[in-house]
């Protein structure tokens, strides 16, 4: 019951990547539409009038906004394949907690790393590493956050890996040196086709960041 | 198997109120523990080491943190009574969207006190900043009014997820109006009608503190932080 599925997206967006991965995990065909964020399409403005942001998942003409809401929606509608969210209510609450943690911390801290310098950048780097270490602790000895297979937290977190190289270059540090277990987990995820095909090349993301820095007049 | 449910809370917290309402809607007996946020208990720090915040729902010794996660958890575990989330995936996604919207725009009533946004700016600032904050708040409330439409509740005929997520902030309206010198009812009459409808439900009325009490609390905080 795929119906008509469209994803309004922007290639470097870690949020868009989450939905790409979820759709790929379930083997659902969809139309990918690239948005120019400096010139948003009528469709985007119509489908997400409140936030005017990507990604927007449009299913049979009806929009679902916010990436974590999309992933949960995809998991619920196409529930018979590759379940992402645990069925046990407590495990589900734990998975939601970590996705909420990732949403509260990763993007903002990452942005500070490439946008700022000096003390502000140093603090952002420190906090960023602390967050990754906390997530490493939650991962423990599991193959994935979801256990034996890719789960909700994995899908929410792994997109940020495509930005790691950019953060490292801008912040002059090595994430692998600080969080080897995290990088090992990432590499496991990247062996999955759904993930590998949904994440852009890290070098490409870095070039994009350099462009943004120029546009924003950031050294 | 006797269920042990504990809620670590702080009486003016709209986030704590969400879980109070959800538990009351389901008729679940629980122990309410009031936290002194200037002197957090060992239990709180142990149960929410990551954020160290209330509310924390402890079910048979296991913590659930973040109010919206708690409401969903309560709804899923005690699913046989007073369902809060729709069963249809699309309606569920819509409910989650609006609860998320409330969180993004009005969640500023955080008691760490240093992260004030929309609502917080109404009493912390003066002049132009306050005028902007008021305008943004009214726009946000009007959008929610529009989403409510002609329904008695956001959840339709009965209290739902978005109602539970949003109604707690009603207990802060009087404080906002006094500090910001404006009337929310004048701007959003339908929303106030909805709020009063919710307040007729015991689960809500018993979970929200008195608005005057909240205002007195804000005045204390303002004094304490040397504001005006």
From TrEMBL, chain A:
A Pfam family cross-referenced in the UniProt record is GST_C_2
GO CC terms, sorted: cytosol
In this protein, which residues make up the domain named GST N-terminal? 3-82
Alphabetical list of CDD domains matching this protein: GST_C_Tau, GST_N_Tau
Where is the protein found, in the record's own terms?
Answer: Cytoplasm, Cytosol
Listed InterPro entries: Glutathione-S-Trfase_C-like, Glutathione-S-Trfase_C_sf, Glutathione_S-Trfase, Glutathione_S-Trfase_N, GST_C_Tau, Omega/Tau-like, Thioredoxin-like_sf
Print the keywords alphabetically. Cytoplasm, Detoxification, Transferase
Q: Per the similarity annotation, which family is this?
A: Belongs to the GST superfamily. Tau family.
Recorded protein name is Glutathione S-transferase
- Supply the source organism for this entry: Gossypium raimondii (Peruvian cotton)
Taxonomy of origin reads: Eukaryota, Viridiplantae, Streptophyta, Embryophyta, Tracheophyta
């Amino acid at each position: 019951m795929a119906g008509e599925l469209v994803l309004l997206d922007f290639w470097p967006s870690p949020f868009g990547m989450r939905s790409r991965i979820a759709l790929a995990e379930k083997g659902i065909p969809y139309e990918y539409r690239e948005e120019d964020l400096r010139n948003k399409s009528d469709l985007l403005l119509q489908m997400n009038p409140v936030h005017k942001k990507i990604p927007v998942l449009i299913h049979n003409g009806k929009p679902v906004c916010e990436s974590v809401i999309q992933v949960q929606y995809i998991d619920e509608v196409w529930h018979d394949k590759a379940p992402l969210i645990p069925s046990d209510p407590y495990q589900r609450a734990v998975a939601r907690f970590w996705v909420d943690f990732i949403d509260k911390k990763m993007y903002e801290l990452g942005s500070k790393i490439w946008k700022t310098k000096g003390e502000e950048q140093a603090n952002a780097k420190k906090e960023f590493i602390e967050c990754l270490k906390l997530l490493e602790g939650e991962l423990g000895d599991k193959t994935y956050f979801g256990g034996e297979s890719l789960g909700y937290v994995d899908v929410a977190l792994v997109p940020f890996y495509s930005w790691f190289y950019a953060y490292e270059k801008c912040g002059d540090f090595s994430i692998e040196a600080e969080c080897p277990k995290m990088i090992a987990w990432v590499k496991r995820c990247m062996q999955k086709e759904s993930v590998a095909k949904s994440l852009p090349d890290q070098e490409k993301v870095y070039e994009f960041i350099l462009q943004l820095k120029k546009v924003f007049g950031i050294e | 198997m006797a269920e042990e449910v504990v809620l670590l809370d702080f009486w003016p917290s709209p986030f704590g109120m969400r879980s109070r309402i959800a538990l009351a809607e389901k008729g679940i007996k629980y122990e309410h523990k009031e936290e002194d946020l200037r002197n957090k208990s060992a239990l709180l720090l142990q149960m929410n080491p990551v954020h160290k915040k209330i509310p924390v729902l402890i079910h048979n010794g296991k913590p659930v943190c973040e109010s919206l996660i708690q409401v969903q958890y309560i709804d899923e575990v005690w699913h046989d009574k007073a369902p809060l989330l729709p069963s249809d995936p699309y309606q569920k996604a819509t409910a989650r969207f609006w609860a998320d919207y409330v969180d993004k725009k009005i969640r500023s009533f955080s008691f760490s006190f240093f992260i004030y946004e929309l609502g917080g700016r109404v009493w912390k600032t003066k002049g132009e900043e306050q005028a902007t904050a008021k305008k943004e708040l009214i726009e946000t409330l009007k959008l929610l009014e529009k989403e409510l439409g002609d329904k008695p509740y956001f959840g339709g005929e009965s209290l739902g997820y978005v109602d539970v997520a949003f109604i707690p902030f009603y207990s802060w309206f009087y404080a906002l109006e006094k500090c910001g010198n404006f009337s929310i009812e004048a701007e959003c009459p339908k929303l106030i009608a909805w709020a009063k409808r919710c307040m007729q439900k015991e689960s809500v009325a018993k979970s929200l503190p008195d608005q005057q009490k909240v205002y007195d609390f804000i005045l204390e905080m303002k004094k304490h932080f040397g504001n005006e």
